[in-house]
Amino acid sequence: MAKKIVGLVSFLTLGFFVTTFSQVLKPAKWTTTVSSKEAKTGDVITLFFRATIDANWYLYSSEFPCEDGPIKTSFNFVADKSYERVGEIVAINPHDKHDKIFDCDVKFFKGSAEFQQKIKVLGSPLKIQGNYEYQVCTELTGQCVPGDGEFEFNDINVTGSKLESSNAKPQEISTQQPSNHKSQNPNSTITNREPNTLDSAKQRIATSNQQPAIIKGPQLDPSFAQQKPNQTWLGFFLLAFLAGLAALFTPCVFPMIPMTVSFFTGRGNKFQAMLYGISIIVIYTLIGALLAPLMGPETANHLSTEWIPNLIFFLVFIVFGLSFLGLFEITLPGNFINKVDQQAEKGGMLGVFFMAFTLVLVSFSCTGPLVGSILVSSAGGEFLKPIIGMFAFSLAFAIPFTLFAFFPNWLKSLPKSGGWLNTVKVVLGFIEIALAFKFLSIADQAFHWRILDREVNLAIWIVIASLIGIYLMKGFRLPGDQGKDAEDKTVSVLRVSLAILTFTFVVYLVPGMWGAPLKALAGYLPPMSTHDFDLLAANRKDAPNQICDVPNYSDFLHLPHGLNGYFDYKQALACARQQHKPLFIDFTGHGCTNCREMEARVWSDPQVLKRLKEDYVVVALYVDDKTELPESEWYTSTYDQKIKKTIGKQNADLQITNLNNNAQPFYVLVDNNERVLVQPKPYDLNIDHFVKFLDEGKTKFKSAN
């Protein structure tokens, strides 16, 4: 049972994120207006750029002190003699936050965004046009989407004589000067009309003798057009159901089963007994429904990455664990329980409901920690998850009361209440405390405190598991251990069996102190990069993976964790064919926070890194890189009919045109014929999921060759 409870609460850290595969996302819709459509030469008017941002998405502002961080919104104006800019673009009331991945302060918008640019009118006709670039990210799935568009103000009526511009000659003016090649990223969202710079580029290509090369890319298999259904709800339902069964074997609940059932059996009213069980389910499910809005999509991101909620959950689990160990009891006010009990004494259907309510309240000191664990586990982004969890918990909790009322003879087979009930409670308390450190670990990694490194976390688990084993063998007593059972030093076969399992777990953990990977717990421990006491490292053969030739752009683009790979799709595909390996495509971005998090927390895992080095040719395609390619490599996209001149724009077009997706991070496995092998993978911090993804791709590749 302890193992099952570990499985239940482990859902707290898995963070399952699902994305729709065949979908080009456009979370921000832009509009433009002007302060006045009538102006005289010499007047200063204001241009307004407004974005409507989808729920659960945010857009980065245009100015914040983080040069190598997320992509800022920028506006590029094509200079013209009819106007000149007055000052810089102004972002109106953005929000502030600290980005822990890039370790800098950023500004962003939610819901809507507004930028203003003042211009001085110099003459008629007034010709204001240009383009903008931006990045939006979501807290729901961890994706980031780059975007761009063009603007034009051509309906402003100007009167008066022409004025001289302070600019010596027209040139393209940017509202933001990028500090390096990482600064911006492309991806067309809305288009009013292409600016003159693109018109001239089209003209040059149209008159060129060289035809632009259209990049071929991974072809979408129709079998991947539909996203696989979410399989986690069933697993979560079963684990919550097991938690409900565990709650039955606690000192607050188990003795109430025969008492309550005898009450209904004595009356001979089985309908009321069934209504009693249904009432228990309704009460718990209503609790889940009321709390569901608090467990919404944004909670998933905060639970996974933010330090404040993780510290809160750490403290909550510690409190629950100490309560189960007998330090104190978590109880509700007695006056409240008495008032509910008075309603139950009135009888009838309403009385039966309040009897069920009384049971829920009286048993709260034992069920509260388990219910709290389920509600914390449900903070994964789905509105229905807390409702499903509470329904499953209450179903298991209510079934015995109903069944024993229908079959009263079964009561004779129930074991008598005794000290064994407190043993169950104590073991659950130790498990709650052990799991609490997972939350503290997340906060520790976010702030780089380095107080809970991997070996420290393992040491805590070894000590707690050892205490569970010693307690099962009656090596010590706690405040709740009273009566004859506590005085009797005889140990039952069941307790010995459970102690053997516990000490076996301890033996499994011990090699981890010297660097053993402990694959079964890879998703629940701090990353191996935090492990300082690694005596096995000297015996590891960790040579860099071999590639075919020097990667293009390797002078300014790099892969993490010592991986050798490519940054050009065609070059990587040629190497994959030469080595007869599948190709691992990483659609990423310089300003993609969640891309860096995936690399730091998932790619760094030894299981993942080994597979990337040995089984795949790796290519990282940056969709926001501004490096301009030679004109002979430009081409016109079949998706938006725009000229793709930079590395980033061509990589983004490759993703959209061939995979109908524009979010990052996005991982795709293809064979040597450019066919997608398995369902592409979005942002997902679960290491086991990523290992399975890589293994399935390798298996499919071998079976097809």
Fold topology:
Elements: H1 2-9, H2 11-14, E1 28-34, E2 38-40, E3 44-53, E4 57-60, E5 74-78, E6 83-91, E7 95-99, E8 104-110, E9 112-121, E10 128-138, E11 144-153, E12 157-159, E13 172-174, E14 188-190, H3 196-206, H4 232-248, H5 256-267, H6 270-291, H7 297-305, H8 307-325, H9 334-344, H10 348-362, H11 364-377, H12 385-406, H13 419-447, H14 454-472, H15 484-487, H16 493-509, H17 569-579, E15 583-588, H18 593-603, H19 606-615, E16 617-622, E17 635-636, E18 643-644, H20 647-659, E19 666-670, H21 687-703
Parallel strand pairs: 2-12, 11-14, 15-16
Antiparallel strand pairs: 1-3, 3-9, 4-8, 4-10, 5-10, 5-13, 6-9, 7-8, 10-11, 15-19, 17-18
Helix pairs in contact: 1-4, 1-13, 4-11, 4-12, 5-12, 6-10, 6-12, 7-8, 8-11, 8-13, 9-10, 11-12, 13-14, 14-16, 19-21
List keywords for this structure.
705 residues; alpha+beta; Immunoglobulin-like; Glutaredoxin; 3 domains; eight-stranded mixed beta sheet; four-stranded antiparallel beta sheet; 19 strands; disordered N terminus
